[in-house]
Amino acid sequence: MAENKIFAGPKVRRIRNGLGLTQMAMAEALEISPSYLNLIERNQRPLTVQLLLKLAAVYKVDLDELQGEAGGLVRDLREVFADPLLAGELPGEQELIEVAEAAPNAASGILKLYRAYREQAQRLSDLAGLLAQEGHDTSISATRLPADEVREKLERRPNFFASIEDAAEAFHGRLSPGDDLAGALRHWLRKEHGIAVRSLPVHAMPNLRRRYDRHSMRLFLSERLTPFDQLREIAMEASQLALNAEILAELDALSLSSREARRIARFELARYAAYALMMPYGAFLSAAQRARYDIDVLRARFSVSWEHAANRLTMLVRPGATGIPFFVMEVDSAGNRLRRAGAQGFPQARFGGGCAKLNVHSAFAQPGQVLVDAAEMPDGGAFLLISRTLEGPQAAFNERVRRTALLIGCDFAHRDEVVYGQAVAGGGLPALAIGTACRLCERQGCLSRAEPPVTRPLGLDEMVTGLSAFDFQ
């Protein structure tokens, strides 16, 4: 037991300062030299068990306080420094432990400031949404990563890149793939660029969807991917070679601020090009109109997944040959919005997509089923909404399945042109009363409300309790 050592110098210093003692006075009471106490307080000497017992006897110190780490503070500080604004500031966790132990009051102050910052950032974000809803542009935003910049650029513009579409159609025509686009692309990659395509088992490539080996000139695809997703990966690789000039031209037009943002955007444009190659514009638009935008019919016609066909519907805005302006939003089971896009830009101001009552959240309870709703906004605007779950890469027995849900919608005025409009035509379904987001919605008595609106004072009446968890006046 005598060999057990504990380094707790900052805590000893706080005890001494709290009692108003000098190092000499405390050292005398503990029967050690002032120089030794000084080394202890600087963590250059340990607290032995005998000294711990002496501290407890002389100053009534709680031994658990001396021996235990400031775990709660460290955990909270770890969350603070995980924020994109502060990420990379600390080389490791040891500094967090030192701050929590040496200056717990300062650490608590940091936490209070950070919480206030987050709350104000949320309020500013809500205010920005409210101003946008009323038609006012605003630059108010939270901390932005390169990915945030790319997402904002793509969400605020039509999901259409004319030069990529034209080049993809021409490339598809030269391939003449018939019913085997994957085979035609594999042949083209090998013949024109010497690139072979191979599938690898999970144990050989456990964490990647695909990998291009420049040395061996091979494109490796994970066997976790469905045949549809493997086709998209092959099409992305081919597009980056055959449509490189068009992709770079569209990338330059986005005017991004950093190399990292350009790298992310280039990947997004390559994925767009893959969709354009898999589902050529003219043929896809014609098929979509004949099928009344039935996504299941389109996925079978072009041998793609439900996700691919739904995403392609948002891209049909070529001048002189436009389809219905669809928009999409993808979420996970925790409600995180992963992606938003639309033919005319995601209708953030009119639709929002932050309402808990949207059928995209209900889709997780019915995997694989297509859910249709007519949704009405507080201002009277209405949307036709279609949602379905999407399955991620194949999971192993001991892994949790990655499942997200995709919402695809359009203005309710187009319901007669869309096969899904049958489900809500003639009063088949009552309109779902939704809002842009809880903090911007003033619908009273909403059972799904998660936050009070920023535009109304809370109605705190001890004599009355409303249906919502947050009553307001």
From TrEMBL:
Annotated HTH cro/C1-type domain residues: 12-66
Stored Pfam families: HTH_3, Peptidase_M78, ScfRs
CDD domains in alphabetical order: HTH_XRE
Keywords, alphabetical: DNA-binding, Transcription, Transcription regulation
InterPro entries assigned: Cro/C1-type_HTH, HTH_RamB, IrrE_HExxH, Lambda_DNA-bd_dom_sf, ScfR_C, TransReg_Diox_bact_type
Molecular function as annotated in GO: DNA binding; DNA-binding transcription factor activity
Gene Ontology cellular component terms for the protein in this record: cytosol
Family assignment from sequence similarity: Belongs to the short-chain fatty acyl-CoA assimilation regulator (ScfR) family.
PANTHER family assigned to the protein according to its UniProt record, in alphabetical order: HTH-TYPE TRANSCRIPTIONAL REGULATOR (PTHR46797), HTH-TYPE TRANSCRIPTIONAL REGULATOR SUTR (PTHR46797:SF23)
Protein name: Short-chain fatty acyl-CoA regulator family protein
Species annotation: Ferirhizobium litorale
Taxonomic path: Bacteria, Pseudomonadati, Pseudomonadota, Alphaproteobacteria, Hyphomicrobiales
